[in-house]
Structure formats: structure tokens, C-alpha cells
């Protein structure tokens, strides 16, 4: 499956999950507990990763443990170990490759540099893996190393008969990386959705009754979020049932974005409305825009969904 499609699904899944797991009434509990790795979470994520079996194998080891930091930190550590092992293997092959094969030696050299960079990226990622606020940076590190290792694979594919073992190692590293990216997307979207809802509910509870107009705007926003959650859940189910029906996914997400934007407009009418709430809502709207863009790219053939 194309990595972009994985991202699309994970963003969609996690925004939907963040909304639908909350009470659908007007009362929200401020739940700050860390999300745990569960069978349900594993079975939602892994079928859409690059290697579902590997994903399930690794995530199952952490059932009942916090996604962040425990699971994420351990997966980054695993990626580091794999990067070091692959780098050592390629270095050994480079030394054994005869001088009369300069092209192959050059490709090995490039891959050695790729894995040296991957180790640096993973070292930086692991330092931030205990805090939701760092997930965006961790995702960037993971995406960079996945892209670089893919380039290494393409280089070595030109000498397939002599590099099959390394190509297999590259594939394994990319698969581990895709799980890390998935966790980061889950945390980022979930954290953003939770932050926005918490802000709205806190302000709704603290606003004095005499400011009935502002209080009414908050209540309307909460109803908008409830409708958006239903649309996102519909998109999630549609994609899970038939990933080829991208049009339905786009329609559901577009409807949810419309609800979020309506909330944004409602709050913007209030002079005393804190701008950070409207900003948080806009971020969720922007996540939806990414999904719609990816759906358009898939439907026009610019991105292959690679689903059968």
C-alpha cells in the first residue's frame, strides 16, 4: 500500500476515534490518561501498514502498556538497532566487493551514509518520544529515514542478484518506520482533537450565565463536533469496508470539515472569544484538508492505493 494512503487512513481513524470515544452529551470529562495498546487499536492500525504481520507482532508485545512513551520509545529503539545491523552488514559487503565493481561499491557507500543518517535521526527521535508535543518532529525524522532507505533500495535493486539480503533488511526497516509514523499520527491527531474539545468545554463551564450569546456559541460548537464525529466515523467505516471507494471517504470527511468550519465561524463572531480555540479548530479542519487532498490524488491516479 502507498505510504500516503496509510497516512490518510491513520489521520482519519484517529480523529474519528478521538471524537467517538467521548461522551456524546454536552458534558465532557477531562480525561488525560495515556492511551493503552489494545487488541482493537492493533487491529485498526496494522492492516493498513506496510507489513501487517510485523506490525501486529511488535505491537502485541506492548498490549496493556501506554502507546506513549513505552511503545513508541521501544519501537524507535528497535529501529535504531535494525539500522545499526543493516549498516554493519552493508559495510561488510562493501569491503568484500572487488575493485572491478566500482558501481556496486558506490551504491554500497551511499547506503552506508543513508543508515548513518538514519541512526542520527532515530537518536534525535528517541529523546522526544516521551512527550506528545514532540510527535510532529518524531514523525518528520521517521519519514526522512523511510524515504532515504527507499532510495537505498532503489539503488541496490539494479544489482538485485548480489544485494537481495540488504534489500530485505531495508524493507524491514521501512516497515518498522511505518509503524512509528502511524503512532505519531495517532498521537498528534488525538492530542489536537482532545485539546480543542477540552478548551471549548472548559470555556463553556467557566463563562458566566449573563454572557448568554457566547455560551450559546460554545453549545452550538459542541453540537457541530458531535455531527463531525459521526461523519468521520462514517468515513472510517467506509474506508475499512472498501478502500477503493475513495469518493465516499472524501464526502464524509468534507462534511465533517464543513461542521468544523461552521464552529469556527460561530466563534469568530464573538469579540471576547479566545483566538486559541478558533485556531485549534482550524488545525482539525486542516487535517481534513490533507485527507481530501490525498483522496483526490488517489482518485485521479496520481497516487496508487495499491489495494486489490
What structural category arises from helix and sheet content? mainly alpha
Q: Supply the number of helical segments.
A: 10
Corresponding CATH superfamily of the largest domain? Invertase/pectin methylesterase inhibitor family protein
Query: In sequence order, what are the helices and strands, one letter per element?
Result: HHHHHHHHHH
Brief digest:
The protein is mostly helical and 308 residues long. It is built from ten helices and no strands.
Keywords for this entry:
single chain; 308 residues; mainly alpha; Butyryl-CoA Dehydrogenase, subunit A, domain 3; 10 helices; 77% helix; disordered N terminus; disordered C terminus
Task: Please render the helix and strand layout as text.
Blueprint: H1 3-20, H2 39-45, H3 52-60, H4 67-96, H5 102-127, H6 135-156, H7 160-206, H8 212-241, H9 246-268, H10 275-299
Give structural notes.
The chain has 308 residues and is an all-alpha fold. The chain has three domains: 34-66, no CATH class; 69-181, Up-down Bundle (Butyryl-CoA Dehydrogenase, subunit A, domain 3); 185-295, Butyryl-CoA Dehydrogenase, subunit A, domain 3. Helix content is 77%, strand content 0%. It has ten helices and no strands. It has helices at residues 3-20, 39-45, 52-60, 67-96, 102-127, 135-156, 160-206, 212-241, 246-268, 275-299. α1 (3-20) packs across α8 (212-241), α2 runs antiparallel to α3 (52-60) and α4 runs antiparallel to α7 (160-206). The radius of gyration is 22 Å and the shape is elongated. The model is unreliable at 1-33 and 302-308 (pLDDT under 50). It comes from Striga asiatica (Asiatic witchweed). Keywords: Coiled coil, Disulfide bond, Signal. Belongs to the PMEI family.
Amino acid at each position: 500500500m502507498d505510504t500516503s494512503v496509510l497516512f490518510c487512513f491513520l489521520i482519519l481513524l484517529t480523529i474519528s476515534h478521538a471524537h467517538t470515544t467521548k461522551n456524546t452529551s454536552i458534558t465532557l470529562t477531562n480525561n488525560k490518561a495515556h492511551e493503552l495498546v489494545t487488541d482493537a487499536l492493533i487491529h485498526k492500525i496494522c492492516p493498513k501498514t506496510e507489513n501487517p504481520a510485523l506490525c501486529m507482532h511488535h505491537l502485541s508485545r506492548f498490549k496493556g502498556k501506554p502507546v506513549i512513551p513505552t511503545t513508541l520509545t521501544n519501537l524507535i529503539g528497535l529501529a535504531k538497532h535494525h539500522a545499526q545491523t543493516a549498516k554493519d552488514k552493508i559495510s561488510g559487503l562493501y569491503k568484500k566487493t572487488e575493485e572491478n565493481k566500482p558501481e556496486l561499491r558506490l551504491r554500497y557507500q551511499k547506503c552506508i551514509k543513508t543508515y548513518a543518517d538514519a541512526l542520527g535521526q532515530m537518536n534525535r527521535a528517541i529523546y522526544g518520544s516521551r512527550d506528545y508535543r514532540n510527535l510532529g518532529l518524531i514523525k518528520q525524522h521517521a519519514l526522512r529515514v523511510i524515504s532515504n532507505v527507499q532510495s537505498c533500495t532503489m539503488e541496490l535493486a539494479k544489482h538485485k542478484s548480489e544485494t537481495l539480503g540488504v534489500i530485505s533488511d531495508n524493507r524491514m526497516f521501512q516497515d518498522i518506520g511505518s509503524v512509528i509514523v502511524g503512532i505519531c499520527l495517532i498521537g498528534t491527531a488525538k492530542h489536537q482533537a482532545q485539546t480543542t474539545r477540552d478548551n471549548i468545554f472548559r470555556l463553556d463551564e467557566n463563562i458566566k450565565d449573563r454572557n448568554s450569546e457566547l455560551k450559546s456559541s460554545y453549545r452550538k460548537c459542541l453540537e457541530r463536533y458531535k455531527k463531525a464525529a459521526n461523519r468521520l466515523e462514517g468515513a472510517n467505516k467506509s474506508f475499512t469496508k472498501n478502500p477503493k471507494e475513495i469518493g465516499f471517504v472524501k464526502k464524509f470527511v468534507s462534511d465533517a470539515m464543513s461542521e468544523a468550519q461552521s464552529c469556527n465561524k460561530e466563534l469568530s463572531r464573538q469579540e471576547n472569544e479566545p483566538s486559541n480555540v478558533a485556531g485549534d479548530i482550524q488545525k482539525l479542519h486542516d487535517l481534513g484538508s490533507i485527507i481530501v487532498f490525498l483522496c483526490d490524488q488517489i482518485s485521479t491516479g496520481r497516487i496508487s492505493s495499491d489495494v486489490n
